[in-house]
Amino acid sequence: MPALKAALLEVETHLGWSRERRAHIVLRLDGGFGTTEVLNGLLSRGYQVVAKSSNHGRVQKLRQAIGPWQPTASPGRAMAAILRPHRFCRATRQWVSRTPQAHGGYHYAVLLTTLPDLEPTALAEAYDSRAMIEATFCQDQQALGLVKRRQHKWEAQQMVLLLARLAHHILLWSKRWLSRVPTTRWRLDGYGLVRLLQAGMTVPGVIRWRRGWMGSVHFDPLHPLAEALQQGFAALFRGRVRVGILR
Known about the structure:
The chain is α+β, with helices and mostly antiparallel strands. The protein has helices at residues 2-15, 19-22, 36-44, 56-62, 120-128, 131-144, 154-178, 182-188, 193-200, 226-237, and strands at 26-29, 48-52, 70-71, 78-81, 93-100, 106-113, 205-210, 213-219, 242-245. The strands form 2 sheets. A 6-stranded mixed β-sheet has the order 1-2-6-5-4-3, with helices on both faces. The chain has a 3-stranded mixed β-sheet with strand order 7-8-9, covered by helices on one side. Helix 6 packs parallel to helix 9 (193-200). It is elongated.
């Protein structure tokens, strides 16, 4: 809760989110943030939420009084309204979700929202749409080696994360810059951070400097991305740096 509170406070201050603005913002939270303390803290600040409860005992208790099961878009998964929901500082709609497991039986969870018009299927889809964000986190861990980089001191760990954030954005920006040329855009289409770093940013070549400034960039002609990158960098530098293929 302290880390989440500090992060949101920084965002609110930077973007100028008033309470009226926060009432139009929906926060999607997984089970790790599904405690009463966290949810009450967010609800008290006026946010809307789509969240999962992390309390296993509470899930078992709430399952005792539910309505009929309703199918969702995910095969085998169903949801049922909770008739006696857990109380928070603001009104919420709560549902029990059951998902079939490979070895038999079901996995049960509690999904809740403050949005009154969000039906069970839409609620499940809204929660599942976090998958793209989590995929981005996994790419950062693989491409930037975040799992292997741990510091004992808090300040040092903060610096590691700031550098990782910078590297993340540089990779995304570079793909956007290079994709201005149709040929390069076609070649880099579908590249995630891992492939972009391992394939796109490791092309052999030669950089020549002149009086402290980059004078020319030439790529190895044997690399399959050499021609596409040559066109992309030529468009990026706009004649200020000579870009070509080694001969």
